[in-house]
Amino acid sequence: EAAGELKVIKGAEPREEIGGIVDIYMRNMGNPAVMFDEVPGYPKGHRVIANILTSVPRINVALGLPPEASEMELIQWWRNYMKHAPSHKPRQVNGGPLLDNVFEGEDINIEKIPTPVWHEKDGGPFIGTACLVVMKDPDSGWVNYGTYRVQSQKPNVASVMMSPGKHGRIIMNKYHERDQPCPVAVIAGIHPAMFMLGGLEIPYGKNEIEAAGGIFGEPVEVFNMPKTGLPVPANSEIAFEGFIHPGDNIQEGPLGEWTGYYASGSALEPAIRIATFMHRNDPILMGAIPAVPPNDN
């Protein structure tokens, strides 16, 4: 906001208006990020932000560079980062803002979050677009943070779509081959730099949160979720955890994808049965909404 990079819109509803307004703002590079507040049917302060990274100044801010740094300075920054690949192991803490509101059992309701239908032909609201999906390899203990689309299905059920060969699907299959449920956590409001890393092909066995620490120059603070033990950043906005059981699939999609098309349609995808849902006070759902190229997050 201080850099002139934020537009606040009040009163837009989530099934048609938020997605339509985001689409307009994403049509040109350099338009501000858009934050929606006073969403009808939801408490004031339960907000949605999108069009996060479609401007060089906002990318600069996310990486700790001056907003006015040039595109070439940004490119040089990434080249230097990739060359040296600095990292910091996350620091375990006992709490954080994410624990402001914690719900279990019948109190779980992810539909409390104003979650838009982002495009007119989407199969439903997607709470996970600019998100991290957390899983732990049962053999090595490696924790992977990947960005996959997550659809809100019911108050206590979500779904996740992971393409074959993606790290998350490889890990899930290891549990299911042993006839075990796969623990999973979803973080739906994160620092933009973490989202950037979630979309990169970090090598198998490497940790995106450690890489984020390298961007920040200090460790990311995390705590372990109560039911799965999966580590999530303590300063996140919204998170939930649960289990994907073998053979437990639910109709998912479609979602307008980064190609500018409905590329994957609707199919049966793994269901997440939610065991814990939490969010900080006045939570911000972050959306990275695929649009017609080249104006994509």
Write the layout of secondary structure elements.
Blueprint: E1 6-10, H1 17-25, E2 33-37, E3 47-50, H2 56-63, H3 71-84, E4 91-92, E5 101-104, E6 126-128, E7 132-136, E8 143-146, E9 149-154, E10 157-161, H4 167-177, E11 182-187, H5 192-198, H6 208-216, E12 221-224, E13 231-233, E14 238-244, E15 249-252, E16 267-279, E17 284-286
Parallel strand pairs: 1-2, 3-17, 4-12
Antiparallel strand pairs: 2-3, 5-16, 6-9, 7-8, 7-11, 9-10, 10-16, 11-14, 12-13, 14-16, 15-16
Write up this protein.
With 297 residues, the protein is an alpha+beta fold. It is 20% helix and 28% strand. It is built from six helices and 17 strands. The strands form three sheets. Strands 5, 6, 7, 8, 9, 10, 11, 14, 15 and 16 form a ten-stranded antiparallel sheet that branches. Strands 1-2-3-17 form a four-stranded mixed sheet, covered by helices on one side. A hairpin with a 6-residue loop joins β12 and β13 (231-233). The longest helix has 14 residues, at 71-84. It is globular, with a radius of gyration of 18 Å. The two termini are 19 Å apart. The mean pLDDT is 92.
H/E element sequence: EHEEHHEEEEEEEHEHHEEEEEE
**Number of DSSP-assigned strands:** 17
Low-confidence stretches: none
β-strand percent reads 25-35%
Question: How many strands, what sense, and barrel or not for the largest sheet?
Answer: 10 strands, antiparallel
The percent range for helix content is 10-25%
Distance between the termini: 19 Å
* Mass-distribution shape: globular
User: Over all CA atoms, what is the radius of gyration?
Assistant: 18 Å
Q: What is the mean predicted local confidence, pLDDT?
A: 92
Question: What structural class results from the helix and strand content?
Answer: alpha+beta
Q: What is the number of helices?
A: 6
